[in-house]
Amino acid sequence: MTQWWYNNKTHEVEEGPQSLGVERDGPYDTRELAERAPQIAAERARKWAADEADE
Hints:
Elements: E1 4-7, E2 12-15, E3 24-28, H1 31-35, H2 37-54
């Protein structure tokens, strides 16, 4: 199964891990999810911040 990664340095989607681990997010199961990686990360960060505020 192909895995997709989002490169935070180039802002491009990669098929398979091509760049350094610190430069990419993933893996994602589809290209479309990898394209949304910045939005997914922002959504997760907001959720984590809200969860911490509730503690």
